[in-house]
Amino acid sequence: MRHRATQTSRHHLWRYFVLVYLLIAAVSPVHAQSAITIIEDKHEHTFQGPLTFRLVAQAEHKIDSVKLFYRVSGQTAAHKVDLDMDPDTRIEIVHTEDMGAEENYQPPMITLTYWWVIEDEAGNRLKTDPISFVYTDTRFEWQSLENDQVRLYWHDQNAEFGQNYFDRAVQAATDLGTAFDVQSPNPVVIVIYNSHQEFMSVLQEASSEWTGAVSFGGSGCIATELGPESWMNTVSPHELTHASLDQIARPPFGEIPRWLNEGLAVRSEGGMSVEERAALD
Fold first, then answer.
1. CA-CA distance, 213 to 251, in Å (whole number)?
2. pTM strictly above 0.90
3. Which of 5, 155, 172, 265 qualifies as a FRET site for 98, CA 20 to 30 Å off?
4. Is the peptide bond between 252 and the residue preceding it cis, with omega within 30 degrees of 0?
């Protein structure tokens, strides 16, 4: 009889634990978040033009707050947009950023990541999963090659052209990693434009006319115009070094001093020429 009583007590104890678990699950954050449902989440862009985000969501209670966040992937700071809306159980949000405006400037082919934070009048809150996309220069049809070190884009040239410059960039990245025992956390993006006019059109208005290649600080992205073979042989490793160092030396470590950054980039070219050394003697 004692044995049966013990079994009965254990059975009641088990039912108690199951009941407690169900009560906890009923008020957990996961359940609260499920009260808000995403119906549609889309984006589209035109390079240096409109970047449009569209959200459709519904909830049991009126949604009264929607915030949009977006940033360059790999960076910590995000741009926040508080969106005006009339509270409702179903909301449709369309927000457009003018990427042609100087304050919104972004270089071509970087990866942007965005997400939404939605709240309703009952206090339920939903942060959507981040969505990433490449901010493509939509004026051209691009080809690309990529590994864990480099992502190269080119247009209106054959596959051999792309493979040639991709191999050079990979070799430069490998040499940099071997020399200093470092590697960029993300592939360095290299975009080759076929003319000086094309190249200058992607830069900010204050850029110097003589510029032929640039590393967009903090983005891990390089843009260059297609130049003579001898120049391309030096500009690729030079700018790749800048882009790699920008990704490696981030907060809380601070920036690499400009003289050291430039010195390492020149070293990646193969060092100073005979004429440059003579000028220093």
1. 26
2. no
3. 155
4. yes
